[in-house]
Structure formats: structure tokens, C-alpha cells
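R.M. (postdoc): so does anyone remember the format we settled on? I'll just put the C-alpha cells first.
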């Protein structure tokens, strides 16, 4: 069965969107409860800028649904 974005829980969808928007960087202070990400105000996103590369969010960021790899 093909996994799709729309089949994820709302919390997992928010995490995927955060990762897509970050592209290069890292997420700090992210916790999970019962296998679900808890995106609280304490979660910190650190973006890296790569010179000579595209630093925008991923193309899937604007899609309502897409296949997960």
C-alpha cells in the first residue's frame, strides 16, 4: 500500500510541513508521545543557508497530498 500525506495524523502532517519548510537545518526539543510528535512552543527550528544551493522550502510544501517515501 502506498503511504500518502493525507493518511497521516494532523500532528504528523504538521511535522512533515515543518521539515519541508526547513529543508536544510535541524529541529530541536521535539518530543513524541504515543508515537505522535508534540509540536510545542519549545520546539526550535534552525535553518542552514547553503550558498550556491536552493534554500527555499520543498516543492511538496504547496501540495495538499503526495506520496510518502
Amino acid at each position: 500500500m502506498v503511504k500518502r500525506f493525507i493518511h497521516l495524523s494532523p500532528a504528523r502532517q504538521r511535522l512533515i510541513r515543518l521539515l519541508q519548510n526547513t529543508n536544510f537545518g535541524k529541529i530541536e526539543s521535539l518530543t513524541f508521545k504515543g508515537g505522535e510528535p508534540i509540536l510545542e512552543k519549545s520546539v526550535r527550528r534552525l535553518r542552514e543557508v547553503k550558498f550556491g544551493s536552493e534554500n527555499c522550502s520543498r516543492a511538496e510544501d504547496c501540495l495538499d497530498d503526495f506520496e510518502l517515501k
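R.M.: ...and that's the designed sequence above, right after the C-alpha cells. Also worth knowing: The chain has one domain: 5-49+56-62. The chain has a mean pLDDT of 86.
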